[in-house]
Amino acid sequence: MSETTNPGFTPRIFSGIQPSGGLTLGNYLGALKRFAALQGEQSETIYCVVDMHAITVWQDPEALRMRTREAAAAFMASGVDPAQSVLFNQSQVTAHAELAWLFNTVARVGWMYRMTQFKDKAGKNSENASLGLLAYPALMAADILAYQATAVPVGEDQKQHLELTRDIATKFNHDYGVNHFPITEPLIEGAATRVMSLRDGSKKMSKSDPSDASRINLTDNADAIAQKIRKARTDADPLPGTVEGLRDRPEARNLINIFAALADESPDQVLSRFEGQGFGAFKPALAEVAVAKLSPITAKMAEFMDDPAEIDRILGTGAERAAAIATPILDRTKDIMGLLRSRP
Ligand code: AMP
Ligand code: TRP
Questions:
Q1: With left for phi above 0 and alpha for psi between -120 and 50, is residue 123 left, alpha or beta?
Q2: 231 an active-site residue?
Q3: Torsion sign, CA atoms 195, 200, 201, 203
Q4: Atom 12 (ligand 1): residue with closest C-alpha?
Q5: How far apart are CA 212 and CA 275, in angstroms?
Q6: Nearest to residue 153, comparing CAs of 9, 40, 3, 39?
Q7: DSSP states along 78-120
Q8: I need a labelling partner for 183 at 20 to 30 A (CA). Which of 36, 107, 166, 212 fits?
Q9: 204 part of the active site
Q10: CA distance 135 to 100
């Protein structure tokens, strides 16, 4: 795929997650689970806890440090192996911030104002949002392009940011008459690229939703998971035999998609088993598969969190490996743009 789109570039996968709160089932199914699965294929895999993105909205400093470690623990508990992949936190590799500045001169202000995540997060009083929140997609493009990454696995909500990354790469290559940055492919795949709130099938499951019942946290215990699924909003109809029958039933569709993604089945396969049954039968089965898949991850996360010094060591080593890839690409970018480099 990326070989045909980006001839001449090493196949390389990059993705990131913000340490801005506890991680959810949405993060796991849309991102973490897939990060682990992509290891050891033909591509190098580089995974990042994007702490500099998190500070675009206020973070308590001590809590941020702790959540950065917790996000790293979630990567590893989900199967990201720091020996196979490069795992680090963004702020330890200065190439991200430097390249983001260079991209601030390439990206247009109008592109930034069009971002739906900016509109959502800035809310009504957008004049009072941090400048970083507006510039956020240029930093995200820098995360990806500092490694000349050819593919980025993410959930559906990041599609617009990846299009902007492609726009920045295209404009840079065009403005400077080079083929320096690849046109990165989004990898938005699987049954659960957009996991919805358990309370409202029209809203994304999010760590920032005020209702804890709306989401399954990766730190929830088996009882909490089962209870949240039992209370999840649904409708009164029995389940249909195929996904077409779920078109106007967003809550039902969401639970089917979650089941399918957890069980590594297609939504149609799940429906063929539950056709004609109501949620009284389906929800306990969903709770069972959710607990079976998530409990080992929760337990491993807790184990990693027992040794924060080891997490810090892993992130530090990862940052060194990341910098070794990113620095020559950043230097070349500066040369292309005419920024003088003469330091010995
Ligand atoms: P964030 O928590 O915003 O840093 O998101 C990290 C990753 O998780 C990104 O790839 C998102 O697209 C993905 N993600 C977040 N929430 C969801 C969700 N509800 N469904 C699917 N993927 C999600
Ligand atoms: N913007 C992403 C999110 O909110 C996180 C992110 C930052 C990211 N940089 C990235 C994802 C680079 C993929 C690649 O979910």
A1: left
A2: no
A3: negative
A4: 155
A5: 30
A6: 39
A7: TT--TTTSEEEEGGG-THHHHHHHHHHTTS-HHHHHT-HHHHH
A8: 36
A9: yes
A10: 9
Rounded Cα distance between 189 and 202, Å, is 20
- pLDDT tens, position by position, 143-156: 999 999 999 999 99
The DSSP line for 227-262 is: HHHHHS---SSPP-SSGGGGTT-HHHHHHHHHHHHH
What lines the ligand 2 site, CB under 6 Å? Answer: 14-16, 18, 50, 53, 140, 143-144, 152, 154, 158, 161
Q: Confirm or deny that 171 is annotated as ligand binding.
A: no
pLDDT by residue (tens digit) across 105-129?
Answer: 999 999 999 999 999 999 998 999 9
Q: How far apart are CA 267 and CA 259, in angstroms?
A: 8
Q: Which ligand 2 atom is the nearest neighbour of the CA of 155?
A: 15
CA distance 144 to 342: 26
Helix (H) or strand (E) segment spanning residue 153: strand 151-153
Give catalytic status of residue 33 as yes or no: no
Q: Give me the catalytic one of 203, 207, 283, 300.
A: 207
- Ligand 1 mean position, distance from CA 344 (Å): 42
Query: 154 CA distance to ligand 1 centroid (A)?
Result: 7
Which tokens is 292 given? 């079976």
pTM of the predicted model as reported, rounded to 2 decimal places: 0.96
